[in-house]
Amino acid sequence: MITKDTFVRGSKSGIETIITMSKVILPVFFVVKVLEKMNVINFIAGYLEPLTKLFGLPGEAAVPLVLGNAINIYAALAAIEPLGLSPKHVTILAVMISFSHTLPVETAVSKRVGVSAFMIIGIRLGLAAVSGIVLNLIL
């Protein structure tokens, strides 16, 4: 049985989590939406489409990939929604980002425990790329 104290602590923790996530998600969503309306996303997509096509993704998908790798998963999620990507594209992006998210922070942590930064970045980006290619072939 859930006690009143447990419910209060859980609710407080949940609200704090929502606030923390909103600090990333809302600004990124807004910026991506504005950039999309200004055709900046299309401009970026034009240059990156040859790379993203390897994974069966449109050029616009480079935006959440970069944000997910550079910032965190929540930034990538915020960038995916305004782009109106298909379920296949979202699935490929989600798996790729799950392998290579938050590279600067997680590479620093790995380096502190003695793992080579180049090795960890290579493995994580390699797994992301292989998973993107494989998913594109099977989905």
Structure characterization notes:
The mean pLDDT is 93. By secondary structure, the protein is mainly α. It has one domain. The N and C termini lie far apart (44 Å). The chain has seven helices and no strands.
Question: What's the short story on this structure?
Answer:
The protein is mostly helical. The chain is 79% helix and 0% strand. The longest helix is centred in the first third of the chain and has 34 residues, at 4-37.
Number of domains: 1
Let me know the largest β-sheet. Answer: none
Number of helices: 7
Number of strands: 0
Helix-strand topology string: HHHHHHH
What is the arithmetic mean of pLDDT? 93
Radius of gyration: 18 Å
Distance between the termini: 44 Å
User: Which structural class matches the secondary elements?
Assistant: mainly alpha
Helical fraction: over 70%
List the main descriptive attributes of the protein structure presented here.
about 140 residues; mainly alpha; 7 helices; about 80% helix; globular
Q: How would the blueprint of this fold be written?
A:
Elements: H1 4-37, H2 40-52, H3 62-70, H4 73-80, H5 87-100, H6 103-112, H7 117-138
